[in-house]
TrEMBL record:
Residues 1-149 form the Protein kinase domain. InterPro entries: Kinase-like_dom_sf, Prot_kinase_dom, Ser/Thr_kinase_AS. Keywords: ATP-binding, Kinase, Nucleotide-binding, Serine/threonine-protein kinase, Transferase. It comes from Aegilops tauschii subsp. strangulata (Goatgrass). Its EC number is 2.7.11.1. It catalyses: L-threonyl-[protein] + ATP = O-phospho-L-threonyl-[protein] + ADP + H(+); L-seryl-[protein] + ATP = O-phospho-L-seryl-[protein] + ADP + H(+). One of its GO terms (molecular function) is ATP binding. This is non-specific serine/threonine protein kinase. It comes from the Eukaryota. It holds the Pfam family Pkinase.
Amino acid sequence: MSCTNYSSDSKDFISNTKPHFSCPIYADASSGLEWRDRYKIIKGICEGLNYLHTQNIVHLDLKPANILMDDKMVPKITDFGVSRCFKEDQTRTIVTIVAGTPGYLAPEFTNGVITFKYDLYALGVIIMEILTGAKGYHEAGEVRTMGNL
């Protein structure tokens, strides 16, 4: 994944096009997912997110539905529709509209300042879901735009 053609109005992302299949990354108690498999999935998500951040990409909508598993059960982060590509020396940006999914949004989303920490909060929720087999929150509704701040 890389970010090209950065301007204030346009961000183009390039990704590999190898086919992936969707697979819920959290598993309920009846799924039988072994601990070593859970570890491998968590490690893969962490590595993918680390790669994005080293490329100055903030995902902003990290959630299980946006993580696909390849044929070897290696997680792939997808859906960069609301992502931001920071300039090389940039670590945050201010927005007036916050997009994302409730339950995975960092509590500080209301301040309108986007940083890499946004993704880390969502990662923590996802890790808890993988480890416990339960959703990390009680609201099931998805909202793409939380509205004006």
